[in-house]
Amino acid sequence: MKITKKKYGFFIKSSKYPYSFWSIFAATTPGATTIVVARLKWWHRKKNCMKKDLFSWYSPALNKDMPIVSYGQDGFALLLVPTAAADYLEYERFQLMDHIAPFIDSGKVRVFSIDSINNDSWLNNNIEPRYKAVRHQQWNDYVYNEVVPFIRTNTSANTPIITCGASFGALHSMNLFLKRPDLINGVIAMSGVYDLSEYTKGYFDDDVYFNSPWHYMNNLTDHVVLEEIRKSKHIHILTGSGNYEDPSASGKFAKILYDKGIWYELDIWGEEWPHDWNTWRAMLPHYLGSRF
Prior knowledge:
alpha/beta, 11 strands
């Protein structure tokens, strides 16, 4: 596929805006999809440099434009999935990117962060539950058929991809890995509940079942899929025990994996760790530093 590029450059110097916006591209595939790419760099005050790239394309699976942001340029790929109703820049807004910057700057990891469509699916109270389930499945297709190839193109065919998310993003991250362990190499799930029916307000059908790790893993007998999952050395189930956390949900789900002969790491932190950003800002850098 040939892409033509038209370049527009501008540069801003300001103490108020510590960013150097160094190029914006409008890239058009003739007769096909329009892709808009914005590339940005910023310099931290301590002169640590992190490369940041913004991308967007029209998703055939979702029938809408979907943005994605990349941080860094080397290392394994960490695919971040937002929490409940958030977007692809959520982890940056809540300073998690600042806390894992040393691993990005050193080339250990390259982070890709995508949009969820929870507001179009399970959090959308204006549509029938059946269509929420359909929308969820379309988002899965977007990740597998568009995001994963995009990551491969921008890294390499052999670069490991690890999904990662907190809260509702933990369920999505775990589900993405378990359904396609041939594409996703592992998962870091923080403060998750792995029963999708917790979010469906009583609705249950095949699409809910097959996107609810708590349900389908109990009954999974496909030897080929199980062996693919068992190959992973990066199934990390993390949770605090403080306010609004549910460590029993992580423990019960880990028991399902244990009964299937699947390696995992269950790490339950203390009561001083609530279901909130200060917990996740501590968890993720700890695991990037000690397990990868």
